Amino acid sequence: MTYPVLKGAGYVLIHTPDMIVQNGSTCTVERATNPDSEFLKEVSNHIRSYEDVVNYMPNQVYIGNRRPEELRDLPMPWCEQKIEGTRNGKFGEIMPQDEFIALMQISDAFDLVKLSQEFIDEVKPKIENNYPEIAPFVGKLKGDDIEEGKELVATHIAEGLYHDGKFVGYVKRAHDVDVNLNAHTMFENLVVKASGVLSAIQMLRHSKIDPAEIDYVIECSEEACGDINQRGGGNFAKSIAEIAGLQNATGSDTRGFCAAPTHALIQAAALVKAGIHKNVMVVAGGASAKLGMNAKDHVKKGLPVLEDVVGGFAVLVSENDGVNPVIRTDLTGKHTVGTGSSPQAVMTALITSGLDRANLKITDVDVYSVEMQNPDITKPAGAGDVPEANYKMIGALAVKRGDLEKKELKDFVSNKGLPGWAPTQGHIPSGAPYIGFLIDDLTTGNRNRAMIVGKGSLFLGRMTNLFDGVSFIAERNTGVTEETSGISKDEIKKIIAESMKKLALDMLEE
C-alpha cells in the first residue's frame, strides 16, 4: 500500500508587543472591568524587546535553528538564559511587529486597515526586500490621514494599531451593526489571515514546491470568519491561498479547537491517498486573543510576559515520493463519542487504537509529539509542564499494557518525549510543531516512527462537554511509491494467453 508523505513545513512567530496590551484578551478584559488596576500599570514594564524574543531558546527551536532536546540542558526559567539567535531559521522566521502590521494591510481585501503615511514609508521597503513572493500585492500598502481613527478607536468603532507605543493606524469595522464584522473581530481575523500567509510563504520556501502545484488548502486555526447570517462560514483557507500565490488551489476551513491541526493533517492525507488532490497544504494562522493570556501570573512573579508572539505553521502533504516520511492512513487514533473523558480512556483511544491495528507496542514508536506547550509559560501560571504530563500518562499506559517495565518509566519520558517549546496559541502547540523535525528525523535522522497527537477541549464552545482528539503515525519511507497487485508479469501474460485461447475456442464452437 502506498501512503501520502509529509513533504515540507514552515513555522513563523510574530513579535507583537503592542498587541499584548491593546488587543490580547487578558488586557482587554482587565481594561473593561478594572481600568485602574495595578496590573495594567505594570504590564508594559514586563514586555520583551524583539531582540530578546529572537534570543529566546524555545523560539529558536520553533523556527528550526535549535533542536528541542537542547532545552533539557538549559536551566529554567529559560527566559533568563540568553542565547545567540537569528531572525531566520531552517523552518521559518521571527517577524517584527511593524512588518506584520503591513502584512495585515496587504491581506485586507476590503480597505479596512488604515496606516499613517509615515509608517508606510518606513515599512514598505522592508516588505519589498523580505517578501518578493507577495510583490503583486505590495501596491496595497498606502498611507492615510489617521487622525480621525483615534476617535473611532475611543468609541469602539475601530481597533487601534500601535507600534513602539505609537498610534500608527487602525482597523475599521466592516458593518455598522453586525457584531460578527465589528472592528475587534476584523482585527483578529486579519491577524489569522496575515500570519497564515506568512506561514504559507515559509513552507513554500523551505519545501521548494512550485506554488502552482498546490491544489488544496485546509486552514485549521481557532478563529471563524463570517457575517450575521453565517458567522463561521469561512473561508480563511482560500483567502490565504490568494495572497500566497496558490493560483490553482481551492480550500476550506477545519475547526476542532486544539485538535484541529491533527484533524486537518489526517484529512489532507485522505485527500491525497484517495487521489482527489496531489498536494494539500495545511495551514494555521495565530490567535491575537491569546497574547498575554497568562500575563497576570507572569507579572506577579516578576517574569516577562512570555506570550508575546503570534504563531503560525504550514505543512505540505503530498503523493508518495519515495523519500519523505509517510502518513500511515491505516493507523490513526480517535476519541469517539463513547470513549469517555477519563485520562486513561483518552490516552487509550488516541495512543493504542492505531498501534493495535499494526500489532505494535507503545515502545515501538520512537517519539511522540503531543501538546508541546512551552513550560516556561505554563508553569508560572500553575498549569505545570504539559508535555511531560502527557508523556507520563503514555508511559503509564505502556506499563499497564505490559509494553514497559515500571522501572523504565522515567527513561520512557526522556527517550520517547520532547521538552515543550511552542507558544500557548491553542492549536499551535498541538502536535504540529514537531513535523519540521519529524521530516528530518525520519529521512536523514535515526528515527523510524513517530506519532502526532492532537487533543481539544470542546466544552469551550458550550455545545458539548465531550473531549476530543485524534492521532496518526508517520514512518520512514521505504522507497516504494506504487501499489503492487502481487501478480508477476509472467502470471499476467499467462492469464491473457489463457483468456485469448478460451475466446478462440468459444468462437470456433459458435
Automatic annotation (TrEMBL):
It is an enzyme of class 1 (oxidoreductase). The keyword Methyltransferase does not apply. It comes from the Bacteria. CDD domains: init_cond_enzymes (cd00827). The keyword Nucleotide-binding does not apply. GO terms for biological process: fatty acid biosynthetic process. Residues 253-330 form the Beta-ketoacyl-[acyl-carrier-protein] synthase III N-terminal domain. Keywords: Oxidoreductase. Pfam families: ACP_syn_III, DUF5940. Its EC number is 1.21.4.2, 1.21.4.3, 1.21.4.4. One of its GO terms (molecular function) is 3-oxoacyl-[acyl-carrier-protein] synthase activity. This is Glycine reductase complex component C subunit beta (Protein PC beta). Residues 345-509 form the DUF5940 domain.
